[in-house]
Amino acid sequence: RKTNGFGSSGGGGGGSVGEGFITRVARLNMNFGNSYNCLAMLVPEVTGGGEDDLCAMIRNVSAPTGTAPSVADTRAGTKFECFHTRLDLAGKLMGYASLGRPRRTWRAGLRDFFQQSAVAGHMRPPHWVYTELDFDASSPPDYHSYSEPSLVDLNAYAGIDVETLCDNGERGGGVVDHAAAAAATRLQRDFAASTQAAFEDVVVEVVADALGKLRSPVDGIVLTGGGALNVLANQRISDAVLGTSGARELRARELPADVCGSVSNGLDQGGGVCGDDGVGGEANTGVADDGGADARLAAAVATATARRVAGSGGGGEGGKLGVHVSAAPNDSGLSVGGAWLINPPLGPHQQPLQYSGFALWDRANLPAVALERGAENLAALQDGGVDRVASLLVNGAVIGVARGRQEFGPRALGHRSLLATPVPGMKSRMNRVKFREWWRPVAPIVAHEYLSEFCLKNGTWTNDARESAGSHATPSPYMSMAPRVSTEAARLAPAIVHFDGTARLQTLAAEDDPWMHSLLLAVGNNKG
To answer: How far apart (Å, rounded) are the C-alpha atoms in residues 339 and 347?
Structure first.
């Protein structure tokens, strides 16, 4: 049995595996993570200012006192250098992208940017390396031969004028051109949407290309590396592999003017994007233009599925391939790979990882703290406190939980989490509690048995707020997918629906975490 594993890593880690368990067939000399992070630095609402704000550097480079060694003025326009930055910017850009719409020319140009700059310092097309089996062996191995970073010229790639993109309206002497600043904000949101769409396109293209080159039967696809934290790309691949029909592009209703034109005060809007202001030379149509990536993946999946059925007699869901993302696909998962390399587990038994982190380091202090604060001992209650906590949640409480061992990986999955019921206004409240930006999504926990009711199938939203294809109800125990939410689920739980109609969900079966699963059902019973 064979499963294709696709690693999309920011720095080349992507996990360690023991020889004899997994054979590396090929590696593509691409580094999506750094390129994606680099573009996030051009969006001030994502960076929040500070040393990672490339726009501030670009604005200051022409000022008499400005110093910005990573930015250069050229006759072709302003160029800038991609450099390592905060790892949280990628996740923020993914959420922020839902405020805009991809622009066709920008999306196509940014695809070229990803494909040309995906290895730091190498502005060249990608090629497959470390070749074995039935892959094209024309390219020699090429491991991380990094050189000095190159200056990026987005105008050459996609016709994007970064000076206009970064215009904050300040004209000196306290004068602010508010119209220019608002237009730049709208451009930045479309730029973020175009970046996310282009990232998805190139990842889908890589998966399609690899499936097309590999001739032996496979059971499924495993996505790993830092790029596998991009839940929108994961969902798109899952939908293609599992055969969800219809066009993927979303079209959302317009956001209020104060959200489109300036930094929002945290309005808990139901979802949508800003209309095009005519800046940038292209109407904001929202029309899908993925460069044919989805069609190529669908064709490659069909061929791989037919080969699998012919070779093994079918299996799975109608013989379809599976899609899996691990609990810790980024560098935090390297520890498990290293341990496996030295001392692999015995037997075929699956070993769940989501709650294999550290235990409470100050557990010995818990009795004294509980006594001081007059805390209830939920463990002493007959149901472990499930009904008590459910009652508090239904009555509007936000509850922090720290139970057992912590999660292994970057997601909070119910052992170190803030819990609340997804009523109107709760998203804004949760973001304030966590000191997060107003546009950040919150993630639902969905009982596994209700997953199919949660996801939008192949219809459209009946209130004309959004038009989209459906999403496949892929289990997501590690918060790895972002399906489109059904109309009924959005009505019952509006706080968990992001601006694009998706939700970054965690699915939970009773065997994953019996206490949390019981709490989910109890909250549902209390709310009716």
So the answer is: 16
Rg of the chain (C-alpha set): 24
**Running DSSP on this structure, what letter comes out for residue 485?**
B
* Global pTM value: 0.83
pLDDT band at 286 (very low <50, low <70, confident <90, very high): very low
**Residue 259 CA to its chain's centroid (Å):** 23
| Beta carbons of 504 and 433 less than 8 angstroms apart | no
Kindly report, residue by residue over 479-503, the tens digit of the pLDDT.
999 999 988 899 889 999 999 999 9
Q: Is the distance from CB of 490 to CB of 419 less than 8 angstroms? A: no
CA 285 to chain centroid, in Å, comes to 23
Bridge partners (DSSP) of residue 49 are none
Q: What angle do CA 393, 496, 386 make, to 5 degrees?
A: 25
Q: What are phi and psi of 121, to 5 degrees?
A: 85, -10
- Residue 181 CA to residue 169 CA, distance in Å, equals 5
CA 91, CA 366: separation in Å to the nearest integer? 34
Whether the Cβ atoms of residue 508 and residue 476 lie closer than 8 Å to each other? no
- Write out the DSSP string of 146-207: --SPPEE-HHHHH---HHHHT---B-STT-B-HHHHHHHHHHHHHHHHHHHHHHHHHHHHHH
Minimal CA–CA distance to 130: which of 145, 115, 112, 142? Answer: 142
